[in-house]
Amino acid sequence: MLPLFAMTAVAGALVGRAVWRSAGLSGRAGALIVAPAGLLGPLITMVPLESCTFEPERGLMDNAVGTVAFAGGAAVAIAAVAWIGRALSSPGGLGNLDSGGDSGTYRHRPLMPWLLLVPTLTILAVFLYWPLVETFRLSTHLVRRGAPREPFVCVDNYTALLGPSLEWWFVVPAAALLVAAVAAHVARRHARPGLDDTANRLARLRGALVVLTVVAATASVFGPGYRPVFVTTLILTSGTVLIGLAVGLGIALLVSQPIRGRSIYRTLLVWPYAISPPIAGILFFVIFDPLTGIAGHIWETLTPWEMPNYRTDATLARVVVIVASIWKTLGFTILFYIAGLQNVSTQMLEAAQMDGANAWQRFRHFILPSLTPITFFLIVTNVTYAFFQVFGTIAYLTGGGPSGATTDAMTSIIEVSTGNIGDGAAGSLVLFAMVLAVTAWQFRATGRRVHYGA
Amino acid sequence: MRRARAIAGCALAALLVTGLTACSDEPEDEGAIDVWIGFTDYRLDWAKERAAEFTEKHPEFTVNVQGYESYEVLFDALTAASQQGEPPTIVQNFEAATQESRDAVNADGEPLFASVEDAIGGRDEILGEPVVLDDVVDAARSYYTVDGEFSSMPWNTSTTLFYSNSTYLEAAGVDAPPQTWEDVTAACDKIMALDDAPANCISWPNHSWFPEQVLAEQGGLLADQDNGRSGRAENVDLTSPEWLSFIEYWKELNDSGHYYYSGVQEDWDGPKNAFGGQEVAFLLTSSGDATSVVTEAEATGFEAQVSRMPVFADKPYSGNLIGGATLWLVDGLPENTRDGALAFMQYLNNPENAADWHKTTGYIPITNSAIELLETEGWFEENPYQQVATDQLALSDGSPAASGVLLGSFVAIRAEITKAVEDILTSGADPATRFEEADAAAQQLLDEYNSLYSG
Predict the structure, then answer these.
(1) Is the domain of B192 the same as that of B140?
(2) Is residue B390 part of a domain?
(3) What chain B residue is nearest to A308 in terms of C-alpha separation?
(4) Interface test with A, best of B251, B448, B451, B453 (most A CBs within 10 A)
(5) What average pLDDT does the structure give for chain A?
(6) CB of A310 within 8 Å of any CB in chain B?
(7) DSSP-assigned letter for residue A273
(8) Would you indicate the residue range of the signal peptide (chain B) (predicted)?
(9) Final residue before a domain boundary, out of B364, B394, B424
(10) Rounded average pLDDT over B362-369
């Protein structure tokens, strides 16, 4: 473990040096301030874990998880110290942490703001921070409700999820990424400004391949038990979000047309949003019931084929779950897109029309870019919905079946918790990490293309 | 005006707070007997009626029956309540949770339940209610007694029965309901060859109880230590040839299109509805549903024949398992409340009530005197199908295999089993390979359970 401490301390020093220099301060001071954070940060995770992952009898997987936890603790400490430390070292002190120049301070009574914040902070602490800390604790124990004991099991609950293996679907995108990255680099060097688009296209391709590789890498780290859950979560989430947004925008465009009674349509369209996810699950359960469901009846009247039973057909089960959750969120999406469409400048559209832009071009180059803030917001809320709320629909619609085809991360957490709540806690922290990663990616990828107007 | 509103608001808040504190300070009522059961249908109504009668007979007690949607939900609620230090008085726990109930501890780490037989302490009657525990039929006795003593009071007890649609049997020229699994296949081949054949031939819930039944029939054990009856079970076995033989048979029925899988694990309603809607010709389900299956069939316009659960023709027969639940008595009650609870348990199972419970549901008459009462009434002559369950259970040889397994984490292990079966039925997994995986998962659950509770 000592070399690890040395490494994080050095990493801290390097980060500190770079950060302080970029702020125009002395690099040496930065290194001296942040290095201790790198040295002590790992204790955030190693003390609660009692450094169990590095005990001699532990396996390779335990060591690997331990190293990640070690680095994670160091990273958190380094980031926090570097961020706050730099602000304190610069003229202006903590005020540097406020974004922009529109922050205010209480000049005379520093106690007052804290008093006013107490109710909020109490609620956050009791219902958010404490459960988070408790989840960390549970994830390292074998926990059964009502059991007389709660033994510490190190990171077993995490290693149970893992089982890395090298698969073709990881190797192929990784190799493609390598080729694209090299090609993009070469193209950029030889690009003649303003004449060809190759460099940009390659850069975009590289971006897509990075996402694909990261997803494949994550999937290949998980073991045979959790990998299908990860894949299912991806399928259900991307299906719900992408199709939901496309359909929502389409309907919003339709009801934004000057047609008679559109306010009635709008009201009716928002309706499903008021229904809770489990109810949506029950509704679709009845609609798609293999014996008495109306969906099968209509299908068999209109087509010569018999509709497969979604409760035993994996593909259809996923489709039905996606349809149910899209139906459920559609009202919300439509509502926001209608509002967004009302803000699209009609003058701009008229100008485009006079310049000869057809309907598709106007949509692609004017309406869609004008809607990016709304789309960004909807992606964030819909992804959150797909991660956390679809569970309610799944529970009543398929129960995670058939054969786990609709067991997403949340459903799997509930399922494993019946045996060991620690497994569920570990699963929820993995989901937590996934949500963090997706949100960070969204802010990077979507944030860049968001136009908030002048 | 604003001040007046503020004062009124404060007063209201104060009133609410004092009101709530007053509620929580209420002294414990020794006459209150809280009974939690895992039913929400007509069976809950039946229990509530008996509770009302008992309260009328013994006005010093108030029996409150609370229904839960399933045994699993009930067990969760019980765990939560006992951790809060507020368990009910009597809890109905299903047979799969017998080991877990025996091991359950309360908030102080003491055993949650008292042994019913101990609490009765050899008395012949409690508060005027005659004790019927020693009159309980052998099938229930052999499942629920460990170390020769009842930990809990039997109540609803069932076994698996085979239901046939007579219309299809006659049309296909099958003389009698199939007695063996081989007969089932043969009858299904004939029925499915009919011009107006049903969608599928046979159905039963994907519930671990059914393969467990066939394992018991052949005398196979699910766990070591004589199925956990001569000591705490430490190894579970889901790879024995007796176990896999039925899983393979199940897969064959499914792959040939004979078996209808509703697609939902532990779904009791799907198969029953398919049988009631004549979508399948045969149904395997609990005898606890006998009354409703037979009467619903009559209402639809066909006759449902009830027969014993099929067996493999060339295998030995040990017996069939019971299913159902027992009433557990919470430990540490005031003596008065405890006796009231015991008296209610005896009242619920007295010959008249046990016979009525049997007639209402199809659960077996739980005491010998209830059987006698039904015989004198001529009930079985009028309704011969109601005797099949009792007869089937009487064939048991009383061996550990036929008595059924006592296993920690059994509910979670059963979930592993139904998951594996679903993989075999819907994604074509290989029974032997898939059950090796399930065996490992089940063993881990058991190891974890034992590490928490034993020693």
Answers:
(1) no
(2) yes
(3) B263
(4) B448
(5) 85
(6) yes
(7) G
(8) 1-22
(9) B394
(10) 91
With contacts defined as CB-CB under 8 Å, which chain B residues touch A406?
A: none
Q: Looking at the partner chain, which of A142, A404, A418 has a beta carbon nearest the beta carbon of B452?
A: A142
Q: Which amino acid is at A384?
A: T
Asked if B259 and B371 sit in the same domain, the reply is no
For residue A64, what are its two tokens? 């690997």
Number of domains within chain B: 2
A311–B422 C-beta distance less than 8 A: no
Do B291 and B192 fall into the same domain? yes
Task: Give A320→chain B minimum CA distance, Å.
Answer: 14
Closest residue in A to B262 (Cα) is A311
Integer Cα distance of A350 and A347 in angstroms: 5
Domain boundary among B370, B394, B418: B394
Domain membership flag for residue B245: yes
H helix or E strand, kind and range, residue B328? strand B323-330
Asked, for residue B6, whether it belongs to a domain, the answer is no
User: Which residues of chain A lie closer than 8 angstroms to B109, CB-CB?
Assistant: 148
Residue B248, domain extent: 160-320+408-453
**Out of B104, B264, B448, whose CB is closest to A311?**
B264
CA distance A311 to chain B (A): 4
Which is nearest to B222 in space by CA: B393, B397, B401, B98? B401
pLDDT at A448: 62
How close, in Å, is residue A402 to chain B by CA atoms?
A: 7
Residues 6+ apart with CB under 8 A from B373: B351, B352, B355
A409-417 helix and A227-238 helix, angle to the nearest 10 degrees: 140
Place of tokens 């007052």: A112
How far is CA B408 from each of CA A142, A150, A151, B78, B443, rounded to the nearest angstrom?
A: 15, 16, 17, 17, 10
Joined together, the tokens standing for residue A446 give 């979507």
Which residue in A152, A291, A415 has the most chain B C-beta atoms within 10 A of its own C-beta, making it the best mutation to test that interface? A291
Please judge whether A151 and B415 are an interchain contact, meaning their C-beta atoms are less than 8 angstroms apart: no
Residue of chain B whose Cα is closest to the Cα of A400: B264
A418 touches chain B (CB under 8 A): yes
Q: Do the interacting molecules here have an ipTM over 0.90?
A: no
A308 touches chain B (CB under 8 A): no
Q: How far apart are CA A268 and CA B392, in angstroms?
A: 58
Assess B428–A contact: CB distance below 8 Å, yes or no: no
- Is there a single domain that holds both residue B108 and residue B249? no
Residue among B104, B261, B426 minimizing CB distance to A146: B104
For residue A156, list chain B residues with Cβ-Cβ distance below 8 A.
Answer: none
Using the beta-carbon criterion (under 8 Å), do B262 and A311 form an inter-chain contact?
Answer: yes
Please enumerate in sequence order all residues whose Cβ is within 8 A of that of B73, keeping only pairs 6 or more positions apart, or say none.
B38
Percent of chain B with pLDDT over 90: 71
User: What residues of A are in contact with residue B80 (Cβ under 8 Å)?
Assistant: 145
How far apart, in whole angstroms, are the C-alpha atoms of residue A80 and residue A83? Answer: 5
Level-2 CATH architecture, domain A228-449: Orthogonal Bundle (1.10)
Round to whole Å and give the CA distance between A316 and A171. 30
Q: How confident is the model at residue B312 (pLDDT cuts 50, 70, 90)?
A: very high
A163 contacts in chain B (CB < 8 Å): none
Residue B90: which CATH number?
A: 3.40.190.10
Per-residue model confidence (pLDDT) at position A99: 54
Name the strand (E) or helix (H) holding B149. strand B149-150
- Residue B71 sits in the same domain as residue B132: yes
Single-letter residue type at B74: L
Q: Are residues B332 and B415 in the same domain?
A: no
pLDDT lower than 50: segments of chain A: 454
The pLDDT assigned to B27 comes to: 47
Q: Do residues B316 and B289 both lie within one domain?
A: yes
Mutant choice from B426, B443, B447 vs A, greatest count of A C-beta within 10 A: B426
Residue B239 maps to a domain: yes
Q: How do the domains of chain A map onto residue ranges?
A: 2-98, 166-221, 228-449
- Integer Cα distance of B145 and A237 in angstroms: 51
